Amino acid sequence: MLTIANLRIGFSNPSGITQALRGVSFDLGKGETLALVGESGSGKSVTALSITRLLPSPPAVYQGGSIYFEGQDLLKITDDELHRVRGGRIGYIFQEPSTSLNPVYTIRSQIAEMIRLHRPEVREIDAEIVHWLEIVGINDPSRRLNDYPHQLSGGMQQRVMIAMALSGRPDLLIADEPTTALDVTIQAQILGKLKELQRELGMAVLLITHNFAIIRGLARHVAVMYQGQIVEYGETEKILREPSHPYTKALIACIPRLGDRRRRLPTIADFQTSN
């Protein structure tokens, strides 16, 4: 479904161009989940936004590579064709629902816009919105249609974001740190709901996170990003058991464990020395 090959992106600045992606390549099949894992600044979100050319250009400079989605190179299609892909065939859940949702529009108006743009055949807009709000676990959704984002908790805002993304019935869902701002209980609920919906709808998911702890049981494969490159790729369980790259080892070693009394988190240098 999605094939990214040797993608190179930089950002222009007064001193020249700063490299952000240095030859990123990976594949994602229909109905599969791939976790893209790495620390802040490693290039995860740049990769996600580049897929549908959401990076403003300038300053972003697409320097080479290809992004094929269902046979189309998204770097070469027209803007009109790309608008039909964004939100429709490829949906996004962004990091912070409080900043992604427009504070001056109701929940109904924001989800309705998505449905009108990508599914014009839908006639009963309100019923469709209620349907998706129910699916993501919002109680009594008809009462929430005219609420504004500030009237909802963080967990409910995130559920609204998921409902909005799914209302376009995407073939690919890109979830960029979908639970970063949530407590662990709500985090588990949101991730569980995503897994359930993926199974029901048969869509592919690109899950972007800095946290190795949440991907077990969610993603069959994982790609580890470091300094704008994929440094390790493979089956999630195998990499969790036997990581090979020092960066991957350091990330996994930072996962909190009950009863752990360490005073200092490990770094890449610790594993490079040990090797």
Characterization of this structure:
The strands form 2 sheets. This protein has a 6-stranded mixed sheet, with helices on both faces. The chain has a 4-stranded antiparallel sheet with strand order 2-1-4-5. The two termini are 38 Å apart. The chain is globular and about 60 Å long. A hairpin with a 2-residue loop joins strand 9 and strand 10. By secondary structure, it is α/β, with parallel strands linked by helices. It contains 10 helices and 10 strands. Helix 5 crosses helix 6 and helix 9 packs across helix 10.
List the helices and strands and how they pair.
Elements: E1 2-13, E2 16-28, E3 33-37, H1 44-51, E4 60-69, E5 72-73, H2 79-85, E6 90-93, H3 97-100, H4 107-118, H5 125-135, H6 154-167, E7 172-176, H7 184-201, E8 204-209, E9 221-226, E10 229-235, H8 236-241, H9 246-253, H10 268-274
Parallel strand pairs: 3-8, 3-9, 6-7, 7-8
Antiparallel strand pairs: 1-2, 1-4, 4-5, 9-10
